[in-house]
Amino acid sequence: MSASVVFQGPGWVDLAERPVPEPGPSDAVIAVEGCGVCGSDLTSYRDGAYVSPGQVMGHEFVGAVVATGEECRVAVGDRLVVRPMRSCERCWYCRRGDIHLCSGTAELSLSFGLPGGYAAHVLVPDPRPGVDVFVLSAAVDVRDAIWVEPLAVALHAVRLAGPVAGRRVLVVGAGSIGLCLLTAARLSGATTVVVEPRAVRRDLAVALGADAVLADAGELAAGSVDAVLDSTGVPAAVEGAIGATFPGSSVVLVGVTHRDVALPEGRWVRGSFGYQEGDFAAAAELVATGRARLGRAVTHEFPLTSFDEAMTVAASDPRAGKVVIRP
């Protein structure tokens, strides 16, 4: 049997024991080592957004293959990080490489339409090495490995900001995505400034190489940053950060909000959602080679049996950085 956390309604999950999935001819079954808690998981758990009753969430996971179909392209024993986002591969968006904009993504993706990583085992349909699964050596700590997916989100956002090498980039928020934006910008050659009200998260940003860390964007002079990468979706935080830009600056909005944000004239404003295939491949390479090591930002680990506690800590504990579920 295999344990999994099953969403039933806002704030309500069950721990279910189910048979270990049986792979189809080209499928693989992965024994999960760890799955990171994402901000979207918190929203799903709290509000029921992006998820329906009966769904197993969790999309930032890594594990080892324990069973395959006879036509599967991975082998038992392979340690894989999995790209959860899937697409139809036929529509106009998919044909141009924008898999994240495919209308079929929700129903095809692990954690949203298909069962995800808050489980002891996950069935991965037709995994393709180097495309939607990537082999990691045993030397890569699970605490580093679970960051591949959010790092892909960050790499995509930094690309949308335009060339950042030698430029001063302001990252708003130092939660999971914010720390990944910091890492992506730093690895792209930017000088990085992070704004984060929580002291623990400011410390994590320093540990991950931020050049400057502030509690409030109001400490920055107008025109002092070339680009803004927002991970919060908080209108006041975004507007405060934009106050440090100048006409011609890039502003990339990664955080999600349903409220209005005042945007001044003369800035290049882009919304960023998800990632393309190349972004995930690049993130997997950065983690596999040790160039991106975010594991030090993991502050809490919980078993599946303590899922509710894990969600509470991730959402509201001021001491929390990244939270990981370990089956």
TrEMBL record:
This is 2-desacetyl-2-hydroxyethyl bacteriochlorophyllide A dehydrogenase. It comes from the Bacteria. The keyword Oxidoreductase applies. Keywords: Oxidoreductase. SUPFAM superfamilies: GroES-like (SSF50129), NAD(P)-binding Rossmann-fold domains (SSF51735). Its cofactor is Zn(2+). Residues 24-126 form the Alcohol dehydrogenase-like N-terminal domain. Transmembrane segments: none annotated. One of its GO terms (molecular function) is oxidoreductase activity. Pfam families: ADH_N, ADH_zinc_N. Residues 177-288 form the Alcohol dehydrogenase-like C-terminal domain.
